[in-house]
Design goal:
Layout: E1 3-8, H1 15-28, E2 32-38, E3 41-42, E4 46-47, H2 52-61, E5 66-70, H3 72-75, H4 79-92, E6 98-103, H5 108-119, H6 123-134, H7 139-149, H8 154-159, H9 163-177, E7 183-188, H10 206-214, H11 227-238, H12 246-258, H13 262-266, H14 275-285, H15 289-296, H16 303-315, H17 319-325, H18 328-331, E8 334-339, H19 344-353, E9 358-359, H20 370-390, E10 403-404
Parallel strand pairs: 1-2, 1-6, 2-5, 6-7, 8-9, 8-10
Antiparallel strand pairs: 3-4, 5-8
Helix pairs in contact: 4-9, 5-9, 6-7, 12-14, 12-16, 14-15
C-alpha cells in the first residue's frame, strides 16, 4: 500500500485542488491520498467560509480517500507551525510514503537548499534578521532581506518570497525534523497565483472564488468549481444562507480582545515586544474590528498575523496551548472527518500502524493522553464558537456520524 499526503484548507475546494489530487496520484502511483485539512478556521486568521464537514465531503468527492483535521490551535499559526503540525499528523498515520504540495517553484533542489539554509541559519543571518526586525520589518521580509544581504543564491531567496513555495519549504523542513522517509512531491501551481483576483479559464485562486461567493455571484463560479461544490454553493445561496465570514465574528472578536488584560494578550501566540499594549489600546479606541486591524497593523505585524492573534483571543488559544500542540508524541491525534467508501482498507492500515491516537467515535477519546484531550476540548469549543458566528446549531464534534462518501 502506497499513500500520499496533502495539506490543505479547501476554502472552498476548486478545480486547482482537484488537479492537485489527480496529479499526485499520476506522479506517485499511490493507492490512497490522505488530506490533512484545517477545521473551521484557516491560516489567514479567519473562519472558514464553509464548515469543515462540507469541505471534507468536497475533498472526498474530488479524489481524496481520507480527510483528517488539523486542530485550530495549529491552523491559526505561522507557516512553520502550520506545516510542522500537519506533517506530524501525516507521519502519525504510520503509512505515509509521499507528501505532495503545490508550489510556484518546482525545482526540488532549490526548495531543499532553502529548507537547509533556514534550518541552519548562520550567526550573520540571525543578526541581520534581528536588525531588520528592530527596523519594524515583518519576519518574512526581515528574513528575505537578511538572506539577500548574506549572498544567498537569488533563486533560493525568490522561493522564500512565494507563499506556496514557502509552505513547501516548511513541509520539507518538517519531514527532515521527523526523520521521515516520505518523499516530497512538487506539483506546479497552475495558472492562477495565490490571492490573484482573476476569474478566467478554468483555474482561479481561492481568494477570487471567495470574493465571488461573497457577492452571491454563483453562476460566475461554475467553470472554476467541481460540479458538487458548485451545486452546494448555489443551493446555499438560493436559500438565502450566507457563508461564514470574518464580518460575522467581528463583534465577538473585538469583545474578546477588549476583555483581556495586557498580560492576557501577552500570553497569546505571536505577541512579543510590547505588542500587547498596541492591541489593548487599539481594542478600546476602535468601534469595529476593521478599524482595530488597521490601527494595530504595522510593517512588522501584518494583517494576517493580527487576525490570527485576534482569533486566538476569541478561541482561548494561548501560546502554551499552541506550543504544546507541537509536542507530537503527547498532544496530537488523528481526527477522522471523512473517508471514501472504498478506502476502508486504508483506515484499517492506519489503525494498525498509527503512532498517534485515532479518533473516529466518542469512545476513542478514552485513549487520548491529557495534553491531547486538552487540545481536543479546545477544538470542540472552537467549533461551538464557529457555530455562533455562522448562525448554525452547535452540535458536539462527535455527535455526527462518520462522513462516508
Amino acid at each position: 500500500m502506497r499513500c500520499a499526503g496533502i495539506v490543505a484548507e479547501y476554502n472552498p475546494f476548486h478545480n486547482g485542488h482537484q488537479y492537485h489530487i489527480e496529479q499526485t496520484k499520476k506522479l506517485t502511483g499511490c493507492d490512497y491520498v490522505i488530506a490533512v485539512m484545517s477545521g473551521n478556521y484557516v491560516q489567514r486568521g479567519e473562519p472558514a467560509m464553509f464548515d469543515k464537514r462540507m469541505r471534507a465531503k468536497w475533498a472526498l468527492k474530488g479524489g481524496a480517500d481520507l480527510v483528517l483535521q488539523l486542530p485550530s490551535a495549529l491552523s491559526l499559526s505561522s507557516a512553520e507551525r502550520f506545516a510542522k503540525g500537519s506533517v506530524g499528523i501525516l507521519e502519525g498515520t504510520g503509512v505515509l510514503n509521499y507528501l505532495s504540495f503545490g508550489s510556484e517553484v518546482t525545482e526540488a533542489d532549490i526548495l531543499h537548499r532553502a529548507a537547509h539554509i533556514t534550518s541552519f541559519e548562520t550567526e550573520k543571518i540571525k543578526e541581520t534578521i534581528k536588525t531588520q526586525l528592530e527596523l519594524g520589518r515583518s519576519f518574512p521580509r526581515a528574513r528575505h532581506n537578511a538572506l539577500a544581504e548574506s549572498g544567498i543564491q537569488s533563486e533560493v531567496v525568490h522561493a522564500l518570497s512565494r507563499p506556496n513555495s514557502t509552505l513547501g519549504i516548511e513541509y520539507i523542513k518538517a519531514l527532515k525534523q521527523f526523520g521521515s522517509k516520505a518523499e516530497p512531491v512538487i506539483i506546479k501551481r497552475m495558472h492562477a497565483m495565490h490571492d490573484s483576483s482573476e476569474l478566467k479559464g478554468s483555474f482561479a485562486s481561492a481568494s477570487a472564488i471567495r470574493r465571488a461567493v461573497e457577492c452571491e455571484d454563483a453562476e460566475t463560479l461554475k467553470s472554476f468549481l467541481p460540479e458538487q461544490v458548485f451545486s452546494d454553493i448555489a443551493a446555499t445561496q438560493s436559500l438565502g444562507q450566507s457563508p461564514a465570514g470574518h464580518k460575522d465574528f467581528s463583534k465577538i472578536i473585538l469583545y474578546a480582545v477588549r476583555s483581556m488584560s495586557e498580560q492576557d494578550l501577552k500570553n497569546l501566540p505571536d505577541v512579543s515586544e510590547g505588542f500587547e499594549n498596541v492591541l489593548h489600546s487599539a481594542a478600546r479606541s476602535c468601534a469595529n474590528y476593521e478599524d482595530f486591524l488597521r490601527a494595530a497593523k504595522s510593517k512588522r505585524y501584518t494583517l494576517a498575523r493580527i487576525r490570527r492573534i485576534s482569533m486566538c483571543a476569541l478561541l482561548r488559544i494561548s501560546r502554551e496551548l499552541q506550543q504544546s500542540a507541537l509536542d507530537i508524541s503527547g498532544s496530537l491525534y488523528l481526527r477522522v472527518l471523512g473517508v471514501r467508501s472504498g478506502a476502508r482498507e486504508l483506515l484499517s492500515a492506519i489503525a494498525k500502524n498509527a503512532r498517534l491516537p485515532l479518533i473516529i467515535k466518542a469512545s476513542d477519546l478514552k485513549y487520548l493522553p491529557p495534553a491531547a484531550m486538552k487540545l481536543f476540548r479546545n477544538d470542540v469549543f472552537c467549533d461551538e464558537v464557529y457555530a455562533l458566528g455562522a448562525g448554525i446549531p452547535a452540535v458536539g464534534d462527535l455527535s455526527y456520524r462518520l462522513l462516508v462518501v
